[in-house]
Specification:
Helix content is 8%, strand content 47%. With 116 residues, it is mainly beta. Pfam families: Cyclophil_like2.
């Protein structure tokens, strides 16, 4: 599934994978979220509810361009730099189009919608 994230007036497409968590995330769309920086590698936002993580691996490593869900806190993460380590509870939902990750380094808000 293709989704569109809009930050600072710029639209960025992303492709969600076929995991239960990604399908559950897609069911929440459209969303407008406030972003904050976390560890100089990702922008994070609270989601309106927790996602279904059934069948997800125990841990994943966030890479630049990843759209992910951090299950312990119930938040969305958009990586603009590589995370550097495997995080227990991190579930990768999909990936931004090539070259789009850097747009998120200073973004304060994002609108996310499904693309038909």
């Amino acid at each position: 599934m293709t989704i569109r994230l809009t930050v600072d007036g710029h639209a960025v497409d992303a492709t969600l994978n076929d995991s239960a968590a990604a399908r559950d995330f897609a069911a929440l769309l459209p969303l407008t979220l406030d972003l904050s920086d976390f560890h100089g590698t990702e922008r994070v936002a609270d989601l309106p509810r927790r996602l279904d993580t059934s069948g997800a691996p125990d841990a994943a490593e966030g890479k630049a361009g990843d759209l992910a869900y951090y299950a312990p806190w119930g938040n969305l993460a958009v990586y603009y730099r590589d995370g550097g380590s495997r995080d227990h509870g991190l579930v990768v939902l999909g990936h931004l189009a090539d070259g789009a990750a850097e747009r998120f380094a200073t973004a304060d808000h994002v609108t996310i919608e499904a693309v038909s």
